[in-house]
Amino acid sequence: MIVVDLSAFLVLSAFLFSCGIACIATKRNAIGILIGVELVLNAANLNFVAAARYLPSFRLEGQIFAIMVIVMAAAEAAVALAIFLNFYHTHTTIDVESASDLQG
């Protein structure tokens, strides 16, 4: 039987977080940036659930925080996709470099 400890989950979470930050930093497409943000939020969820599993004083709070992050990520994705659709309707592209004319 293989025993997985907390450090394995933290390393996996750090890898997911790094992939998300790299995706946010390198993508020019707005959908790619949104995927990077989702990766970062999933890394936070993995931390919360792993802490809830291995830390007895954080048992219920970790699960509740993870559910709150999932709800926030769903709302963020819905709002971001609505903004992207409106931007695409106006500019016929979702390239973030062409969004410089939106600055006020």
Please characterize this protein's 3D structure.
This protein has 104 residues and is mainly α. The protein has a single domain (9-93), classed as Helix Hairpins (Orthogonal Bundle). 76% of the residues lie in helices and 0% in strands. The longest helix is centred in the C-terminal third of the chain and has 33 residues, at 59-91. The radius of gyration is 17 Å and the shape is elongated.
- Name the helicity range: over 70%
CATH topology description:
Helix Hairpins
Q: What structural class results from the helix and strand content?
A: mainly alpha
Overall CATH class: Mainly Alpha
* Overall structural domain count: 1
What value does the average pLDDT take?
89
SSE succession: HHH
Query: What count of helical segments does DSSP give?
Result: 3
- CATH level-two architecture: Orthogonal Bundle
State the major sheet. Answer: none
Low-pLDDT runs of 5+ residues are: none
Number of strands: 0
Q: Hey, roughly how much beta strand do the residues contain?
A: under 5%
Distance between the termini: 59 Å
Global geometry: elongated
Radius of gyration: 17 Å
